[in-house]
Design goal:
Blueprint (H helix, E strand, L loop, with lengths): L3 H22 L8 E9 L15 E10 L5 E3 L6 E4 L3 E5 L5 E4 L5 E2 L5 E2 L5 E8 L4 E2 L4 E2 L23 E8 L22 E8 L5 E12 L2 E8 L2 E2 L18 E4 L13 E7 L9 E9 L4 E3 L4 E7 L7 E6 L4 E6 L4 E7 L1 E3 L7 E4 L2 E3 L8 E3 L8 E4 L1 E3 L5 H33 L3
Parallel strand pairs: 12-19, 12-20
Antiparallel strand pairs: 1-2, 3-30, 4-29, 5-6, 5-9, 5-25, 6-27, 7-8, 9-10, 9-11, 9-24, 12-21, 13-14, 14-15, 15-16, 15-17, 18-19, 22-23, 23-24, 25-28, 26-27
Helix pairs in contact: 1-2
Length: 433
């Protein structure tokens, strides 16, 4: 007779209770993953591996396997809280420069403007390349640039298709033609034009300037568009401006067809050269070859309306915060209303996630058993999506763990009873005479 079976059962059940206790302790830990004790039986064998099968010599812990199932996602009020809905791990760098992986998305800014977790590990992402509108290069630590809200002069925005000024509007086809007069238009006389509107543009230092447009119907289906900046005509002092009649030249003259659309021969784009109205002595050039586009204008029998009045300049702005979208793009927001793409998060995945080596602090590192990492942007291929302002709760089922604890307790008692019974049998044998 042997105490081996009962003793192995006590050891294995004790280890199982440790796993259950650890799960229960981490039931409210963000991003924590449940562990499971996996058992295997033990057998004794003869030297050459033959012979009758024995009763076995007990049980052992084969593995403590982590269960990487999806946890519930709960909303928070912190925009820097991130949850992964699907496969993948955040890539972070610890203080030793080692790359590790986590599902805990509780991030914040440190004093050096790096995005870090509570252990001081820096969140990694690919830097955004505005010229190609995508993330490029190797993942690096996310650091917010405080100077990213610099002023941008109107006409010098980063997106080529959106450079300069864009106007889209409907001209009222029922309006009367403005009678010919000298000068052709007077900005202070509303009778000399049909409509007007204004927008703010910015010089190279981000100083706001008022750009006003005046729309004058000159003939059937024909409109002239004039402009002034801070009340001064665009072309003053240039060849296009007639100093003898003080008659401003139009920016553009539009011609509409019977269908209310611009004709093929109507110019829809212009480039503006505008002198600085703030310096009447030297009148330096404020804007040179500023794009001006009206290609989507219409003329229908409806009231004058503006559907687009856009320019690409910005005043100087201070950083106000960062946001994350579902594809992991990190956007900086500034007080001037500008949003800049800075980075794009990358999620790491592994052929065998259960082969990851646990480091504590809800972090893992790769191992030979896990296989090489596969990196994808959130939402692409098999990678999950990012949900900002939310956290992934632990996937531990507290009710199930409590039931498992009761079961393990009964098994432990049964194994103890086995040891006690064998002891009584041995005592009986010793007392034989």
């Amino acid at each position: 007779m042997s105490f081996q079976q009962g003793l192995s059962g006590l050891n294995a059940t004790s280890k199982s209770l440790e796993v259950i206790g650890n799960n229960i302790a981490n039931a409210s830990t963000i991003g924590s993953k449940a562990s499971r004790a996996e058992f295997s039986s033990m057998f004794a064998a003869s030297l050459n591996g033959t012979g009758a099968a024995g009763a076995g010599i007990g049980v052992t812990i084969g593995d403590i396997a982590q269960q990487f199932t999806q946890g519930n996602i709960s909303a928070t009020e912190n925009t820097m809280d991130l949850a992964i809905n699907g496969r993948g791990f955040f890539m972070v760098k610890d203080q030793a420069g080692r790359e590790v992986y986590t599902r805990n998305g509780q991030f914040k800014l440190d004093r050096n403007d790096f995005v870090v977790n509570s252990q001081g590990m820096q969140l990694l992402a690919k830097p955004w390349d505005e010229s190609v509108s995508r993330a490029e290069g190797e993942p690096e630590s996310i650091r917010l640039p405080q100077g990213g809200g610099n002023a941008i002069k109107t006409g010098e925005g980063a997106v080529e298709a959106m450079k300069g000024i864009r106007l889209t509007m409907n001209f009222d086809a029922g309006k009367d033609i403005v009678p010919t007069q000298t000068p052709r238009i007077e900005f202070n006389d509303p009778a000399s034009y049909n409509f007007s509107t204004s927008q703010t543009v910015y010089d190279g230092q981000g100083v706001p300037l008022t750009m006003t447009y005046f729309f004058q119907k000159t003939d059937v289906n024909r409109w002239a568009v004039y402009g002034a900046i801070n009340g001064k005509p665009f072309d003053k002092g240039t060849a296009a401006y007639d100093p003898t009649t003080d008659d401003p030249a139009p920016i553009i003259e539009l011609e509409f067809g019977p269908d209310g659309r611009l004709t093929d021969t109507s110019p829809v784009e212009a480039t503006l050269t505008i002198l600085d109205p703030r310096d009447p002595q030297s009148e330096p050039t404020l804007f040179t070859n500023l794009p001006f586009k009206m290609g989507d204008a219409t003329q229908f029998g409806a009231s004058f309306s503006i559907s687009e009045l856009r320019q690409d300049g910005y005043a100087f702005g201070k950083l106000t915060g960062i946001t994350f979208d579902s594809s992991g793009i990190v956007k900086a927001s500034y007080s001037n209303g500008r949003f800049i793409n800075l980075y794009q998060l990358q999620l790491a995945d592994f052929p065998n996630v259960q082969g990851l080596k646990a480091l504590g602090g809800n972090a893992w590192e790769s191992s030979f058993a896990s296989g090489a990492k596969v990196v994808n942007a959130p939402g692409s291929n098999s990678a999950g999506e990012i949900q900002a302002g939310a956290l992934e709760e632990s996937n531990i089922d507290l009710t199930g763990e409590l039931v498992s604890m009761i079961t393990a307790q009964r098994i432990y008692q049964a194994n103890a009873q086995t040891v006690k019974t064998i002891d009584q049998v041995m005592q009986t044998l010793v007392n034989l005479r």
